[in-house]
Amino acid sequence: LDPFTRRELLKLLKEINEQGKTVIIVTHDMDVVSEMAKRVIVIDGNQIVYDDSKDKLFRDEDLVNKHHLDIPSTIKILKSVKEELGLDVDIYKYNLEDTYKEIKRVLENE
Fold first, then answer.
1. DSSP-derived secondary structure letter, 92
2. What is the DSSP letter of 38?
3. pLDDT for 28-44, tens place per residue?
4. Of 64, 85, 95, 107, which residue is 20 to 30 A from 48 by alpha carbon distance?
């Protein structure tokens, strides 16, 4: 999907979910997982290797590496800020708004 259609589709799925309906998304896109998922199931081969929250998944670097999963862009950005700038940021933010707020919070306290 092109970026506009992707945003619109995710917006629609979020609205459907907010109406109390379960939405199941099958994807390799960890940005979609970080934005949308409450529960994540990871399947490797024909085995379920993980079934829990996105937060627990992305905090488990061994599991992420073992199953060749990517990490969301927001975590990549915050990891880079932490490592390159030495700022004490919480790297586990799952959308751009929270990522921005975390960087702002840390900079205001410097």
1. -
2. S
3. 999 999 999 999 999 99
4. 95
Q: Judge whether 38 and 24 are in contact, CB under 8 Å.
A: no
Place of tokens 């459907």: 16
Q: What is the pLDDT of residues 78-87, one digit of tens each?
A: 999 999 999 9
Angle between helices 96-109 and 73-85 (to 10 degrees): 20
- Euclidean distance between CA atoms 69 and 61, whole angstroms: 10
Q: What are phi and psi of 63, to 5 degrees?
A: -65, -45
Beta bridge partners, 42, equal 50
93 neighbors 72 (Cβ within 8 angstroms):
no
Token pair of 21 as six digits: 């309906």
Rounded to whole angstroms, the Cα distance separating 6 from 57 reads 24
Residue that the structure tokens 């708004």 belong to: 97
Say if CB 32 and CB 25 are below 8 A apart. yes
